[in-house]
Amino acid sequence: MSLLTNTITYVKQTLENVESGHDFYHIERVYNNAQLIAQNEPCNLLVVQLAALLHDIADSKFHNGDETIGPKTAQAFLESQNADPEVINHVVKIIENISFKGGNFNRTFNSIELQIVQDADRLDAIGAIGIARAFNYGGYKNNPIHLPGHDPKLNMTKEEYKKHRGSTINHFYEKLLLLKDLMNTPTGKTIAEQRHQYMLTFLAQFYAEWDGEK
Ligand code: ADP
Ligand code: NI
């Protein structure tokens, strides 16, 4: 069996009982979108595919915040497959850097393969899927869906905004609506723009319904 087939099987098995935000369906969507973006970029397709498949293999949230657990797990798996050391090194660097949260990793690493997988991962946090994942996460955390009068609208200052965390609608302003401007690739940007508009439509409808039919 090929390295790719083995990796798919391994990831599927490993993520079998994982919460739905980072389950294998998330990986499948990121994998598909990464391959779509890769069609328009000169890149090492195998590195893109492996990094997309392995990018959420172990979440630091469930390992006492240890941000090295994901990259280490991916490295150990790829070594067990006798993958090309250069490929392993690149995939590990992508996983370290894809959702940099302030750990000790080398912030300066960059490659087109990282940019592609990062775009694909970000696309899955916006649009209809992004909305579903956000409310799923908020439900899991028992957060309110909306805190009227508290959720920041787009024109809030940073200081005003910091006092008003907590609801899932708030997460749109904290993260989801910012993602379209962080996209790396032209293909990623185009898809993100359309998903962004969908979220704005959703929010407008949400507020209208919240305020009651007039
Ligand atoms: P990533 O997979 O990009 O590293 P996270 O693990 O932080 O992101 O989040 C996984 C999913 O949960 C994403 O779709 C994200 O938007 C959503 N999410 C994270 N934090 C919140 C929050 N406070 N409220 C609602 N959704 C959230
Ligand atoms: Ni992810």
From TrEMBL:
Residue ranges of every copy of the HD domain listed in the record = 23-126
Q: Which PANTHER family match?
A: HD_PDEASE DOMAIN-CONTAINING PROTEIN, SUPERFAMILY HYDROLASE, PUTATIVE (AFU_ORTHOLOGUE AFUA_1G03035)-RELATED
Please name the SMART domains in this protein's record: HDc
Q: What InterPro entries does the record point to?
A: HD/PDEase_dom (IPR003607), HD_domain (IPR006674)
CDD domains linked? HDc (cd00077)
Q: Which PROSITE patterns match?
A: HD
- A Pfam family for this UniProt protein? HD
What this protein is called in its record is HD domain-containing protein
